[in-house]
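Q: What residues go here?
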């Protein structure tokens, strides 16, 4: 006898913790969620009160009160108290006349109250209603039920009391959440950091006809202030730029650094997968940061925030004294260890990225509000943001070199002016001997000053050389640390991938039905081993004996490497074009570095031209004064302008489908820099197709 039936999902009483305090782990994030609800309720004024929260006392509470549209009994019963329900998914905008774009839609942000305290009292009223509706939710009751043994206790079986009280003024409206049994003590510094964060909830550049003012009160700390951000605080920035987009014309603006002028220019690229964004970035050098700290002591320069339809998407709680608590979800500060002198940190920039629900639907808030859903579109958005910061870093390097040159020039000009002064005075005394005795002390003092200036020039030069030496040592140490971190990551990642596949073989091999899967796993493991071996070989090369300095003949080295690739060129029908000058001898250099550079560049070029009709790989060496310039070009599919700096980062590759692992150009860059050189990707020598890599090395004939 067959029996049929149906089963329903049920929620254990402990569910309240999973979607409350366990999900939203940050109390600032919890308060943000409640304030966002005020925004979606058309509130123009919100008051957040902290009462005796420095220690757990009987009268401790946190309240969030607004003058929004309020809730009816039906709203409370069928919307607020139904998990996952969000009226905002069906009604994207708030009621007229304010008509804001709703920012909440998952239907669980209301459970943020559980992160803050044991009991919440909801007091709400709509306009023209004559009574206030009050609902009491005691999370202790849920917790107590969850500990009871016996029958399953369901989340939906717990009853919550409600009542009505008469209203003194029927025109009043709004909602107040009174949270008691405060879970964590709040120090004054915690509240001040919260004020700083909540002041950024609305973009300072958003065009709102109706205000959204947030007042924070904490009597025990003498705090009573509006949490607002002054738009003037960005006017003292050293450098700024704004990027826009056009959906109809299909382009996104990007920042592009001009090496000749030292300026940042705006270029256009096709729209990215994440959709069009507006981005404003303000960079503050040390002088500007000092002025900012003096003028705006309550605000911090704290990195980039992402706003959706004018409201911050996550709190981005980076305003922390403890660096370990900073989330740095865009990875801005993680990059500093790659080059501590030139990288831009979140303490140097104020940035706003503006997205919209309709225009960027795949940039999705994570359920815990601590980040975004880690999909390909979000990854590409993060890469895009970091590439814009690369331009500022190039600007930093340009200004640093310019200041050094300017400082040196100032001393030299002063020294020359003193010499000219002495020469002029001596000329006067020759023509007027009677003045010689009077001018003698002046000439003597000028000579002493001139000597002091020459000494200062010499000492400055020596100090710069010593600083450069120490900087190189430091960068070497940091580079080795970085290599170790990357290699550890590569080994762990690769071994994890291989472990999963080996485990599958161990459990199911042989199985004819899975033969194709076994073959695919075997190929994947082989590719992973190749990547791992290449990374390890690169690290081991630091200890190889062939890294000792030696004199090499560059042209012979290049021809030798190209000859080794002859079979590969032939099998891929690649035409090779070598343009080399006369004999070039490089003193005390490392031949293996040049082999690493050319081998990796040629590997990339062969991959790039493999599926093209015109297959040319070209190398040209040019001598320019005290520079040796090497150009390596191909007629492949090229590298987009916005990726020209990005491709030099480890694991960043545009040839993944051809087996690229994102290691080659990273190796090339580090080798070139170890030779005191510079590398970049420039406009292709072949016009609209291909790639040209330009390497500059110091060279004295």
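A:
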């Amino acid at each position: 006898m067959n029996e049929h039936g149906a089963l329903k999902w049920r929620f254990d009483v402990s569910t309240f913790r999973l979607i409350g305090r366990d999900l939203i782990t940050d109390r600032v994030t919890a308060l943000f969620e409640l304030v966002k609800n005020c925004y979606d309720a058309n509130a123009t004024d919100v008051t957040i009160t902290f009462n005796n929260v420095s220690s757990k006392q009987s009268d401790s509470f946190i309240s969030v009160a607004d003058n929004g549209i309020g809730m009816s009994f039906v709203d409370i019963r069928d919307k607020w108290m139904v998990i996952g329900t969000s009226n905002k998914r069906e009604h994207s905008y708030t009621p007229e006349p304010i008509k804001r774009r709703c920012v909440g839609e998952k239907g669980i942000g209301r459970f943020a109250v559980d992160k803050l305290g044991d009991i919440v009292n909801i007091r709400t009223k709509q306009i023209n209603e004559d009574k206030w509706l009050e609902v009491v939710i005691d999370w202790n009751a849920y917790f107590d039920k969850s500990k009871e043994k016996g029958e399953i206790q369901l989340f939906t079986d717990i009853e919550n009391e409600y009542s009505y009280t008469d209203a003194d003024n029927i025109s009043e409206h709004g909602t107040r959440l009174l949270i008691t049994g405060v879970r964590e003590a709040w120090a004054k510094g915690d509240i001040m950091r919260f004020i700083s964060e909540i002041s950024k909830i609305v973009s300072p550049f958003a065009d709102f006809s109706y205000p959204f003012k947030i007042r924070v009160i904490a009597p025990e700390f003498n705090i009573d202030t509006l949490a607002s951000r002054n738009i003037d605080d960005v006017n003292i920035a050293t450098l700024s730029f704004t990027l826009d987009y056009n959906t109809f014309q299909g382009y996104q603006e990007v920042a592009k650094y001009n090496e000749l002028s030292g300026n940042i220019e705006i270029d256009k690229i096709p729209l990215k997968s994440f959709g069009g964004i507006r981005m404003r970035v303000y960079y503050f050098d040390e002088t500007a940061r000092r002025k900012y700290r003096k003028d705006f002591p309550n605000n911090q320069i704290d990195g980039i925030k992402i706003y959706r339809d004018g409201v911050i998407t996550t709190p981005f709680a980076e305003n922390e004294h403890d660096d370990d608590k900073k989330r740095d979800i865009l990875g801005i500060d993680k990059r500093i260890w790659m080059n501590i002198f030139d990288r831009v940190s979140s303490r140097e920039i104020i940035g706003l990225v503006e997205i919209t629900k309709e225009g960027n639907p795949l940039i999705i808030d994570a359920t815990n509000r601590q980040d975004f859903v880690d999909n390909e579109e979000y990854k590409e958005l993060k890469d895009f943001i970091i590439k814009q910061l690369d331009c500022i870093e190039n600007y930093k390097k340009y200004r640093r070199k310019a200041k050094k040159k300017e400082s040196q020039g100032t001393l030299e000009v002063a020294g020359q002016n003193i010499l000219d002064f002495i020469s002029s005075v001596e000329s006067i005394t020759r023509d007027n001997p009677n003045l010689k005795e009077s001018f003698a002390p002046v000439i003597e003092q000028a000579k002493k000053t001139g000597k002091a200036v020459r000494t200062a020039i010499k000492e400055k030069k020596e100090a710069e050389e010593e600083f450069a030496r120490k900087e190189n040592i430091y960068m070497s140490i940091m580079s080795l640390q970085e290599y170790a971190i990357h290699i550890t990551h590569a080994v762990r990642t690769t071994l994890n991938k291989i472990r999963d596949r080996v485990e599958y073989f161990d459990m199911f091999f042989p199985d004819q039905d899975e033969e194709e899967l076994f073959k695919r796993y075997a190929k994947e493991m082989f590719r992973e081993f190749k990547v791992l071996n290449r990374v390890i070989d690169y690290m081991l090369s630091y200890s190889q004996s062939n890294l000792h300095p030696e004199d090499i003949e560059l042209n012979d080295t290049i021809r030798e490497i190209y000859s080794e690739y002859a079979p590969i060129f032939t099998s891929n029908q690649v035409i090779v074009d070598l343009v080399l000058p006369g004999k070039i001898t490089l003193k005390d250099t490392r031949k293996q570095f040049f082999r690493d550079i050319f081998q990796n560049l040629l590997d990339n070029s062969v991959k790039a031209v493999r599926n093209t009709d015109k297959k040319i790989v070209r190398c040209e060496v040019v001598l320019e004064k005290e520079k040796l310039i090497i150009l390596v070009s191909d007629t492949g599919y090229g590298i987009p302008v916005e990726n020209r700096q990005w491709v030099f980062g480890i694991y960043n590759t545009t040839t993944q489908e051809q087996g690229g692992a994102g290691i080659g150009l990273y190796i090339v860059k580090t080798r070139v820099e170890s030779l005191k050189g510079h590398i970049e990707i420039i406009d292709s020598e072949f016009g609209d197709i291909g790639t040209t890599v330009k390497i500059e090395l110091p060279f004295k004939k």
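A: Context that may help when evaluating the design: The longest strand covers residues 117-125. The radius of gyration is 33 Å.
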